Amino acid sequence: MLVELVDEQGRPAGSQSVAAAHTAPGQLHRAFSVLLFDEAGRVLMQQRAAVKTRFPLLWTNSCCGHPAPGQPVAEAAATRLREELGVEAELTEVGTFRYQAADPGTGRVEHEFDHVLIGRLDGGSLRPDPAEVEDIAWMPVGELRAGMTADPSGYTPWFAQVLELAERGRNS
């Protein structure tokens, strides 16, 4: 699978394999993070599967991934949501940010221009793919923030920024 390399402003700058883009020092590439909320305002969290090559077993947003070069981000995010969790939701992009983080456990690097999308999921049966997802949990935002403060190492390095943009987008 190829990812879309981008410049600092998020403009396309070529493509590269997922493995090569995540090899140190990492190549800046397009990614997306989806955060789903329910009617009570709780956040659907995902614990990444143990077999993930980057940040396994850490808690993070509902799902994330990479669009193929030239693929619309919202389309790729909707597809990934179906693949990872077996659900559909109307998604709205609420912002972007850049980050770089090395995983000391695997030696892989995330260097991403991340598009944050939010959606609402009321009811429906979740069907997590065990190759992608270790566990899922609906968390009240206040409880989630307390958990992140108490044990920041239990969450992916990008999640705090995803949550901040998602909450800002929900409240605007």
UniProtKB/TrEMBL annotation:
Binds 1 Mn(2+) ion per subunit. Mg(2+) binds at E84. It comes from the Bacteria. It is an enzyme of class 5 (isomerase). Pfam families: NUDIX. One of its GO terms (biological process) is dimethylallyl diphosphate biosynthetic process. Its EC number is 5.3.3.2. The keyword Magnesium applies. Its cofactor is Mn(2+); Mg(2+). Pathway: Isoprenoid biosynthesis; dimethylallyl diphosphate biosynthesis; dimethylallyl diphosphate from isopentenyl diphosphate: step 1/1. The active site is at C64, E112. Belongs to the IPP isomerase type 1 family. Catalyzes the 1,3-allylic rearrangement of the homoallylic substrate isopentenyl (IPP) to its highly electrophilic allylic isomer, dimethylallyl diphosphate (DMAPP). This is Isopentenyl-diphosphate Delta-isomerase. It comes from Nocardia huaxiensis. The gene is idi.
